[in-house]
Amino acid sequence: MAGNRTFTMIKPDAVKAGHIGAILNKINQGGFRIVAMKLTQLSREKAGEFYAVHKERPFYKDLVDFMSSGPIVAAILEKDNAVADFRELIGATNPADAKPGTIRALYATSIGENAVHGSDSDENATIESNFHFAGVELF
Ligand code: UDP
Ligand code: MG
């Protein structure tokens, strides 16, 4: 099972802009299967906990404010080589550096408000999936 799942969030900017459908379409077209999904909103506390690894970084407060500012879509995705292939599909953190056709190139507006999250390792994919979906049935 290791290596075939990743965790994503469609961030508040992309939800507000009406891009949920287009982004889910890119995810499916990219060969990912959705095994769990929900529309939810993070409290400031939960957003701070999710991004705790960045708490010493200068952008942390803005990131927590942004990620708790509106609804998100959280999902667990399945595909061979899921973590690396999903990072490829979403593109660089800064949309100015993201390859044409990637989700961030298409839908992100800035390095902070960059439309989607994608796990950076199998270990974090498991931690982040459990953060949002502990005890939930996966399909
Ligand atoms: N971020 C930011 N400014 C930066 C770097 C990151 O606002 O200089 C935000 C951005 O929303 C990013 C998140 O913090 O997606 C997590 O940063 P990370 O370096 O883990 O980027 P990612 O893994 O999301 O590409
Ligand atoms: Mg990251």
Explain what the structure shows.
- The protein is an alpha+beta fold and 139 residues long.
- The protein has one domain: Alpha-Beta Plaits.
- Helices cover 40% and strands 17% of the residues.
- It has a 4-stranded antiparallel β-sheet with strand order 2-3-1-4, sandwiched between helices.
- The longest helix is centred in the C-terminal third of the chain and has 12 residues.
- The chain is globular.
- 35% of the residues are buried.
- The model has no long low-confidence stretch (mean pLDDT 97).
CATH homology group: Nucleoside diphosphate kinase-like domain
Number of domains: 1
Please give the CATH architecture: 2-Layer Sandwich
Q: Strand fraction band?
A: 15-25%
- Would you tell me the structural class of the helices and strands? alpha+beta
At the third CATH level, what is the topology name?
Alpha-Beta Plaits
**Major sheet details:** 4 strands, antiparallel
Number of strands: 4
- For the record, give the distance between the C-alpha atoms at the N and C termini, rounded to a whole number: 14 Å
Task: Summarize this entry quickly.
This protein has 139 residues and is α+β, with helices and mostly antiparallel strands.
Key terms:
139 residues; alpha+beta; four-stranded antiparallel sheet; 4 strands; binds uridine-5'-diphosphate; binds magnesium ion
Task: Describe the secondary structure blueprint for this structure.
Blueprint: E1 5-10, H1 12-16, H2 20-29, E2 33-40, H3 44-50, H4 60-67, E3 72-78, H5 82-90, H6 103-107, E4 116-118, H7 122-133
Antiparallel strand pairs: 1-3, 1-4, 2-3
